[in-house]
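Technical annex B. To support the medicinal chemistry partners, we prepared a structural model of the target in complex with iron/sulfur cluster, based solely on the information shown next.
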Amino acid sequence: MTKVTMSLIENKLKAIEPEVHEIIDKALDGRPISVKDGLKLMHVQDEELDCLLKTADLLRQRKVGEIVTYVFNRNINFTNQCTIRCKFCAYSEDPSSNKGVFLSIPEIQRKAKEAWELGATEVCIQGGIAPQTNLDFYIQIIKAIKSLVPRIHVHGFSPMEIYTGAQRSGLSIKTALQLLKKEGLDSIPGTAAEILVDRVRNLICPEKISVKSWIEVISTAHQLKIPTTATMLYGHVETAEERIQHLKIIRDIQDRTAGFTEFIPLAFINLNNALELQANVHGDIKNPTDHLKLIAISRLFLHNVKNIQVSWVKLGPQLAQKGLQVGANDFGGTLMEENISRSAGAIYGESLEVSQIRALIQEINRIPIQRSTTYDYLQPIPAQNSS
Ligand code: SF4
């Protein structure tokens, strides 16, 4: 595998369209590229596309070197009962149906303890918006986990859960977050973002929190020094321009707060959901290269977000491995049990062993390093050759 160098990019730049050349120059200089630039990159092909992918790889090298991180974690989806019924969601069940699952607090505790004993450092706790969930319930979960496994990192509760939990408990977002933090919430998944454009949300998840409320929850968390991830669910009814608008919102928040640990593009899996039969549901994301292009654009556009994660659950381990060669530097988690994408028809399993993740990373001559949720390296870093 040839390592991308500046001279290789310079050669490629000679043969591409001047407008794309200029955008790549900006990105290489560490300057923010504009929304118009991002949109231009969404449509590049051939030589221009090749140059974009290689530039993203070079920017990744400059930011983090050859290390690829992963986290040993377990997903605990405590309930699939949900009244929100987003059209893309294949996981949720109507609370009045008899198909719903609702884990008891001791069962959640047991799963967290088992994960810790197997070596996990994080539990990722999320669930549907069931009628009985409120802030007190989320606090009970956190307390129960921390009482049994005090050192495990609790990464939990989407902005949708926090917003609804606060509302149901009659609290402001800030007070709700302060209480969650006080009881041991360590970080928040930046899910429920989907595409941060209200036109798209009205089509795919009209009852979900608005763009404004998502930004409020995330920005308040960052102000309170609760880190979050940032995600984007793409490849359904959104346009290329709306994807870039989403990235711009993430970049602007990061400029203000520096609270995002990473950005995770999540490919939409179009099975078992209410959007499945809609025409044009994949928009312009049609083949593996389109996913790679989006990862590369994320690296260029989000110049202020250090870590770009590939989702092996959504892309599959092989395409995720390719994503690591076009700008991404994090392989995500072991997950141990992943219910949401599996319900949607994802075929890549519920879990990857640490050894499988490490092998995929080593296969492309990169260095696998286990990390904490907040990107502290949990093992020694071998010396890297800077040539
Ligand atoms: S995505 Fe979340 S909020 Fe929407 S229906 Fe599914 S579980 Fe409920």
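Notes passed to the chemistry partners:
The chain has two domains: 6-61, 67-371.
The first helix runs from residue 6 to 14.
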